Amino acid sequence: MLSTEERAVVSTVREWVDREVKPVVADLEHADTYPEKLIEQMKELGIYGLAIPEPWGEAPVSMPCYALVTAELARGWMSLAGAMGGHTVVAKLLQSFGTREQQDRYLPRMATGELRATMALTEPGGGSDLQAMTTHAARVGDEYVINGAKTWISNARRSGLIALLCKTDPEAEPKHKGVSVLLVEHGPGLTVSRDLKKLGYKGVETCELVFDDMHVPASAVLGGEPGRGFAQMMKGLETGRIQVAARALGVGQAAFDDALRYSQERESFGKPIWQHQSIGNYLAEMATKLTAARQLILFAAEKFDAGERCDMEAGMAKLFTSEIAMEVALNAVRIHGGYGYSTEFDVERYFRDAPLMIVGEGTNEIQRNVIAAQLVKRGGLA
Ligand SMILES: Cc1cc2nc3c(=O)[nH]c(=O)nc-3n(C[C@H](O)[C@H](O)[C@H](O)COP(=O)(O)OP(=O)(O)OC[C@H]3O[C@@H](n4cnc5c(N)ncnc54)[C@H](O)[C@@H]3O)c2cc1C
Questions:
Q1: 119 lines ligand 1 (CB under 6 A)
Q2: Cα(128) to centroid of ligand 1, in Å?
Q3: Which of 108, 150, 208, 214 could bridge across to 194 with cysteines, CB 3.0–4.6 Å?
């Protein structure tokens, strides 16, 4: 349950989205323009500090509130929610596992948005099988020397801090024990080599990174001790998956809102189209599934805040919400008829943005694997 203050935070963001984002989103999207002004306003609203507590930030909000803020941003433009997703995961990683020095170095500037952060897991050779990664950091004296490549890294060009998942001991068995998170800042040896062209998620950059003998201090290992990165990142991905689920919720909500409005304005056979049973049925199912998705997200978020393991719940929320967001976006296209296929209406954008949440932050096939493994481990549903 959200406190009164948290409800006010969500409604402030909702009003900002309606006032500042909705009127400009189509132009920004179609020109694929970086939303400089909106990102600056998000910083002023405190969105980059939502997950960062004192002494580095101000009062952080609960995970349910964070999820609903994310959904509001995505309701306006999924790209805006994407521009703060990885940042929050890195903020949580620093709070949970960082040394005090690492926390003091990064969190105060991350709380204001002056410093943005992203995480780099995926490699050209694969994103699902993370333990097979080849990016490698070799210990040389009191430094690590990094070589390798990452791809599909969101916000990489504008993020001053990259939480890099890499191997510090490629021979380790089991393999995950040789994986670390390195806190990397841009510098010699790191090249942002290419901005990838995308179906949706326009405006913010998604890039390839090349590490060529990049030197970082040994103190860049998250928490100071190598070999813990895989477990650290899996915990971070609980936040990431709740965030991606919330993004899908926002996109689905926007598609539903547009469809509900259009179905009352558009007439055929002498009546508003919502009165045709087929269209009414779409609306009823869209609303029902969105309501269920919202509850799944809040359930996972509450478990997270209770300090409980919630990879299964976050996985369920991400799996269900992203799949229904795709369905809702398609049905919104159907309800708009030919106009649903027009770039002058927003529904085509929802349809292009929705698949990202199916693929990103661990594909939905991987979520099913996580859920099934946890069901067996936990002996079923509690
Ligand atoms: C726009 C965008 C932004 C992104 N941002 C980031 C980012 O900021 N940071 C980052 O690290 N990554 C990012 N990613 C990468 C994303 O997380 C990966 O694309 C995703 O994890 C899948 O990895 P892959 O593309 O290598 O697919 P693969 O791992 O090659 O998978 C291909 C297919 O095989 C399936 N598959 C693979 N293994 C299994 C299995 N064991 N069981 C069942 N099915 C399986 C997959 O589900 C998928 O359908 C982003 C991706 C996109 C598109």
A1: yes
A2: 5
A3: 208
What structural domains does the chain harbor? 4-115 (1.10.540.10), 119-226 (2.40.110.10), 230-378 (1.20.140.10)
User: Which ligand 1 atom lies nearest to the CA of residue 363?
Assistant: 47
Model confidence at 183: pLDDT above 90: yes
pTM here is 0.98
Catalogue the active-site residues: 361
Classify residue 122 as exposed, middle or buried by CB count within 10 Å of its CB (0-12, 13-18, 19+): middle
Ligand 1 pocket test, candidate residues 84, 152, 182, 364, most atoms within 8 A of CB: 152
Confidence of residue 371 (pLDDT cuts 50, 70, 90): very high
Q: 């509850």: which residue's tokens? A: 295
Q: What is the pLDDT of residues 187-207, one digit of tens each?
A: 999 999 999 999 999 999 999
For residue 219, report the distance from its CA to the centre of ligand 1, in Å. Answer: 30
In contact, 311 and 234? CB cutoff 8 Å: yes
| Chain segment 328-340, per-residue pLDDT in tens | 999 999 999 999 9
